[in-house]
Amino acid sequence: MGTATKTPATIPVAGNSVPFLGHAVPLLRDPLGFLSSLPAYGSLVKLRLGPLPVVMVCDPGLTRQVLLDDRTFDMGGPVMDRARKLVGEGLGTCPRSKHRRQRRLCQPAFHRDRMPVYGEPMAASCTAVADSWHDGQVIDVTGAMSTLVMRVVAQTMFGTSLPRVSRDLAQDFRAVAQPAFWLMVMPPVLGRLPLPANRRFRQARDGMWDTVRDIIAARRLDGGDHADLLASLLDAQDPESDPEERALSDEEVAEQVVNIFAGSDAAGPALAWALYLIATHPEIEERLHAEVDEVLAGGPLTFAHLPELKLADRVISEALRLYTPTWLGSRIVTADTDLGGYELPAKTMIGWSPYLIHRRPDLYDDPDRFDPDRWLGSRTDKEAYFPFGAGARKCIGNRFGTATAVLTLAAIASRWTLRPADDQPLRPVVKTMLAPYGLRMRVTARGREA
Ligand code: HEM
Prior knowledge:
Helices cover 49% and strands 10% of the residues. Helix 6 (115-132) runs parallel beside helix 17. By secondary structure, the protein is of the alpha+beta class.
């Protein structure tokens, strides 16, 4: 009698695939509906994004397993290869073999103790944007918030002496970041076509790298005493590395700067979503106004107000749950492995989506409801909350990003009420980030609302 061998379970394939583009079509047409439909297939499901087969993880425990085991589930694969061509092999894109050294070198720049140093330009920039608006103005919310965040990052990264350079860099960066996702997952030939959009993309990419390299070269010559993020990166020393690798080379610093810019790009959409959610939930807006009025007491916003802005902080946490800007991440399997009872051969590309997990009704009560108070005390289990990822690759800028978002929300709420400028239904769009692209909102001075 032969021994019974267990047949490995087969991962189900999601429906709605079309030739050539695979599941990119339903993802483009109704990204959020499509992602939310995936857990019904089971804990893992197979998709095809353009030419790329992907195994999507739909379960919070397995997502955590993938994120914590970066030896088996590393940064890599065809999408990451293309990302590296754009932003280099910095902290967010390098493989595990290079990551620990880079993280040790970058970590001091993001340490909790550094936050008050960045806090002053951060609070000043957040206030400046709120001060620059006028009553009745209609703004492109995602554009305005992304520009603000880029400005805060550029100022804290390079000091305030380079406003024009920072602005050019922010512009080039945005021109690279938005189409990047589709260029990474679509057949490469599309990115090589002689189209104006492809030409603009390449120009912006080259401009961005030239600016960053020029800033670093100028800083090396200047030799002055600076207290910004760039100074931390240039001075960083890693005692655990071999002597010739203790510091970051200038090219490595450039790669980190571009990676940090790329990472920070999530904070603009997070803020845009928060503003939209407040505008569509007047009872939360009223409480937020009351909190901000009490905390600021008519004075200017400062970084020291941050711990008191508790509802503003919960609004950001809840916006990050409902509309996580970093809606899709990827990993590559480095050696044959087992995940949740399924066999995964080496080189399998894995997709993980905080959005998908955050909308599961078995994990969150009434998951589509905007309820900042679900984050009061320990009412909600943070084990199924991944806006910043988890494990060794967890977002290094989470404190920085949250602080910027909370302060901006407070600066805006202290003066303005925002409402969608028209009654077009909101159409979430996925690019590299999930953002309310195209959403226009009217700004009204508080106290002058109709
Ligand atoms: C609210 C805003 C933000 C969100 C939602 C967010 C989200 C994330 C996520 C999910 C990851 C992990 C990706 C993965 O594991 O595949 C990540 C990594 C990263 N983020 Fe953020 N991020 C935010 C703000 C920022 C800011 C403000 C910065 C910099 C100033 C930043 C810099 C980075 C960097 C450098 C990494 C790579 C870390 C590593 O691999 O060691 N992020 N971010």
